[in-house]
Design goal:
This protein is mainly α. The chain has one domain (3-9, 19-228). The protein has 12 helices and 2 strands, in the order ααααββαααααααα. Helix 1 runs parallel beside helix 5 (154-176), helix 1 (3-30) crosses helix 9 (234-247) and helix 2 packs across helix 9. Its main location: membrane. Belongs to the binding-protein-dependent transport system permease family. LivHM subfamily. InterPro entries: ABC_transp_permease (IPR001851), BCAA_transport_permease (IPR052157).
């Protein structure tokens, strides 16, 4: 298999994985499917777009060499997307979790509320920015570099390495910090954690900020190859949800495996002459259905009844 194709598949898997892991984390910890994840993606993309307009002249004035100005701007845009996503997570927590988390049918109610937040956010972005697509500066690298005799795209390499670093730091935080230990306890058994004095209300906030930050980072990384628009989060939301289901809702390793699998399916489908990009979604859903028929629990996840 061509090295460029493998890199492209891993690049897609990295971005889809950030979305799917956020959805799985939220479900396994608080029992909530966040349909506003796409809105978080779009808002973070626009936040990075505005930050690029403001930071670019300042950075270029302060740092005259492109070798240093582009990495600096890339870090600033990534941090902007992460912060914007975390803020969206706080808003969703205040609207869709805090008022109803102890009410009957919380999962259904939160699903409807987050769907409403998503629709309202898309309309607000259309009203404020208009339907025109925006682009971010190519600050994560332009062109190709040669590694072991293979020409590989720089922006895809940076995206994969950034995703690995962020997920590694998140895993370290979940394993080493007290808050991470509380979050893991809630993920394993919410009722048992409550009996131990761990508040679901308190742990839900950092979880939603974390998952929102993942969506924000995914928006900035993907916006290097696609445009920012009010509806930019629709496809990542659908793919994040389906990958989370493929991996098994609540399973982070399953979400990672599902993201890599779907990344390879999309990359390979795109180069098949009689299929191409037109049938990517069809093939992806066919693969997901086939896996779920053969293994209803997904690639390694938890079903709703196993949580109970």
């Amino acid at each position: 298999m061509d090295a460029g194709l493998v890199l492209y598949a891993l690049y897609l898997g990295a971005i889809y994985g950030l979305m799917a892991i956020g959805i799985s984390l939220l479900w396994s910890s608080v029992g909530m499917v966040n349909m506003a994840h796409g809105a978080t993606f779009a808002v973070s993309g626009y936040a990075a777009f505005l930050a690029a307009q403001w930071f670019t002249p300042l950075v270029k004035a302060a740092i005259t060499t492109t070798a240093w100005s582009n990495p600096t701007l890339a870090v600033l845009l990534a941090l902007t997307g992460i912060v914007a996503g975390a803020i969206c997570g706080v808003v969703i927590y205040l609207i869709a979790f805090l008022p109803i988390h102890d009410k009957p049918n919380f999962a259904v109610r939160s699903l409807i509320i987050t769907m409403a937040i998503n629709l309202a956010t898309v309309q607000a972005l259309l009203w404020w920015f208009g339907p025109q697509q925006k682009s971010l500066p190519k600050v994560f690298g332009i062109g190709r570099t040669e590694i072991l005799g293979m020409a590989l795209r720089i922006d895809q390499i940076v995206t994969i390495l950034t995703t690995i670093a962020v997920l590694g730091l998140t895993l370290l935080w979940l394993r080493r910090s007290r808050m991470g230990l509380e979050i893991r306890a809630v993920m394993q058994n919410m009722e048992g954690a409550a009996l131990s004095g761990i508040s679901a209300r308190r742990t839900a906030l950092p979880i939603m900020m974390l998952t929102g930050a993942f969506a924000g980072l995914a928006a900035v990384l993907l916006s290097q190859t696609v445009f920012v628009s009010p509806t930019a989060g629709a496809i990542p939301l659908v793919k994040g949800l389906t990958i989370a289901l493929l991996g098994g809702l609540g399973s982070v390793p399953g979400a990672v495996a599902g993201a890599v699998l779907i990344g390879f399916v999309e990359a390979i489908t795109g180069i098949i002459p009689f299929l191409g990009q037109r049938y990517v979604l069809f093939v992806q859903f066919a693969v997901i259905i086939a896996v779920l028929v053969a293994r209803p629990r997904g690639l390694g996840g938890l079903l709703d009844e196993t949580r109970e």
